[in-house]
Amino acid sequence: MGMTITEKILARGSGRxxxxxxxxxxxxxxxxxxxxxxxxxxIGIFRRExxxxxxxxxxxxxxxxxxxxxxxxxxxxxxxxDLCRAFAASEKLPYFYDPGTPSYSGVCHVTLPEKGHCRPxxxxxxxxxxxxxxxxxxxxxxxxxxxDAAFVMGTGKLxxxxxxxxxxxxxxxxxxxxMGKDIILRIIGDLGVDGATYEAMEFCGGTVSALPMSERMxxxxxxxxxxxKNGIVAAxxxxxxxxxxRTSKPFTCFQSDADAEYCATYRYRxxxxxxxxxxxHSPDLVKPAKACGDLRxxxxxxxxxxxxxxxDFIAAARVLKGRKVTVDTFLVxxxxxxxxxxxxxxxxxxxxxxxxxxxxxxxxxxxSCAACLGGPEDTFGRCNGPEVCISTTNRNFVGRMGxxxxxxxxxxxxxxxxxAITGRVTDPREILPS
Amino acid sequence: MADKIRGKxxxxxxxxxxxxxxxxxxxxxxxxxxxxxxxxxxxxxxxxPDSYPRFVPAGQMKTPYAIxxxxxxxxxxxxxxxxxxxxxxxxxxxxxxxxxxxxxxxxAIATGELYPVExxxxxxxxxxxxxxxxxxxxxxxxxxxxxxxxxxxxxxxxAKAVIDHGGLFEFARGTGMMARN
Lengths: 434, 181
Hints:
The complex is a heterodimer. By secondary structure, chain A is α/β, with parallel strands linked by helices.
């Protein structure tokens, strides 16, 4: 019997010839990522359990990326960044992206690929549930808690259960103005928020192969929203072209065997997909954007690991060029590299920043996670009252973006931008010809 | 180590996510700093809609409820370990749910903060907040004090021993997998 990509990576990571779903195996971590929200607690457990004089298993394999609560006056948040800084210095961590310095980058899940930390065939653990994003690069990547992360920090390994794989085959030509976000929201809507609990979600088919890395990242990013342990797309020429630009380290590409076993297979025709939104307060309350009637919004938010990449802002700019927003529109580039692209990338010869300014958007914030998860009260874009926010982020739970009285509607950058113009949930095909 | 947990239950529904268990604005608190650990407890479940009663009374640090009863997919969302930690710090000893999100379940075990017990019966529709119950982890049953009805719960398997020891590291030391420091 053959193996899936996820099984092959975990076999490699555990030094075995093969693994089967349900088996518990010790796997070596190629990368452990942590940030300012879970880093201090992880470091605290590492010190408590391994001792004040202990060292991390391999400084080269640890990436420390403060990104959540950066631009705030909250003293505890600032203290937490200091705790990360002190640890990076004492452990001589080469990959510490330090806020307030030229090494600062921003959102961990966009930083990791940009800086060459995502490589096919590897095992990545991160103290953030959206670590599953990096399955887009043909690797096994999953979110863990502080205690497990402290264990990895000290030993380099973790005992994990091999997940069964659930396969999503998407073929055909994706219609214009339909994005990766629409694909994954549709899948979550079909599965439910616990439809893939403990499982690997493997995305394949001609449509997926034709997607750029940014869109594959969006799809894998939200695997956790169906309860999955990881999302994964097999590495191909698109992956290699991206990865080889950013790292010279060797890696291995795995493909699922033809006779690999899946707990279920779903097939989608790309031509049948359309712009959708997830209504409050659950990512599986999915509805076509065009079927939302006169659902009014009070603000729009474009940002986060899910929808704050360069390509997401290019998409939004296509809609906003030459038009005006009618609600407060918040833009948060995920990283410094994305923030720079807002100035260097153009749509129709006009830089993105100028398009956004002329459309009446609020001036883009400095890169960070910002209001995706609410955060301290002084967070840019945070919903501090009964706002109805259309957002390119990943979760619309009660209180997710701040106040419990706020409602969040999840959408692609195209749909969010179209809605910002009309003030109601709007299919982008109403604004732009598809 | 506990084999029987007796106390009042707090009943919630399906898909209680980590933002409702501990809202993101309190993630500036670091669980390994003792007074911040206590403070996390005082905010446990404060992200629930206002239709719920308060889980931790105003001005207090601990909850009067020893057990949380939930529906499907309890703890979905973030990997924040602050979620089981806040419940444990508030004084919760067990959650009994139809099912759990993966990371919450694992974090509950790794921290040893509480027993994440599964029960095939939809207890969130059978019990109401304030009911007094006894949860027997060894006999694997939950009974409501003063009522005849008993509910079978699922075996925690090897996870029980990890939680009995107080979490992953204490278990590893207690069973000789790691040296004592």
